[in-house]
Amino acid sequence: MVHKSGSRVSEARARLLATATQIFYAEGLHSVGIDRIVAEAKVTRATLYRHFASKDDLVVEYLRSVSQLERALVDKAQGKALPADKALRAIGKSIAAGITSKGFRGCAFLNAAAEYPDVDHPVHKVVLEHREWLLNTVTDLFAQIDEPSAAAAARHFVMLRDGAMASGCLTNSTEVAGTLIDGVEGLLHFRSEPV
């Protein structure tokens, strides 16, 4: 892969990835062909294949870029040196904000897993890597509150998130976002109660 900083080649790669990201998220992965991405990115097929060996490679990079965005939001919440409970609330609010944003179409990773169910496929592997990162991050935060229940709490958090991401594009997104935030509060309240 050629990635020359500051060159037209890098600009073309960035344009390809930005175009693919927009179209893949809005319309799905299998339904969008290479010809459409090439046309909308205003590049040639040769340029696309110089940067991405296949459509699957482009899908993998799309998911990695979405993962980087989500990691940046979580890093922002943790970077403020917030206590774990406030960091978890901030992450929940960030997810809720995404659900109520214009053009929300569910979770890019859950959508990709549905289209690429083979666990050995590179696209599915990127989905699993992202989910593992999310679960580990949330587990670490819950461990700061209550170590023995951290793993269970993190699984609950991720399930709340997944349900909200699925419901948010099917029903009233404002209600779904509120329910997610209430659920996070419930998880935190349960862990802060004396036994």
Describe it.
InterPro entries: Homeodomain-like_sf, HTH_TetR, Tet_transcr_reg_TetR-rel_C_sf. Residues 10-70 form the HTH tetR-type domain. Pfam families: TetR_N. The chain is mostly helical and 195 residues long. The protein is 75% helix and 0% strand. It contains nine helices and no strands. The protein has helices at 8-27, 34-41, 45-51, 55-79, 84-99, 108-115, 122-145, 150-167, 173-192. Helix 5 packs antiparallel against helix 9 (173-192), helix 6 runs antiparallel to helix 7 and helix 8 packs antiparallel against helix 9. The N and C termini lie far apart (56 Å).
Number of E-state strands: 0
Average pLDDT, to the nearest integer? Answer: 91
Largest sheet: none
In helices, the fraction of residues equals over 70%
Radius of gyration: 19 Å
Net shape: elongated
Structural class: mainly alpha
Write down the domain tally.
Answer: 2
- What multimeric state do the chains show? single chain
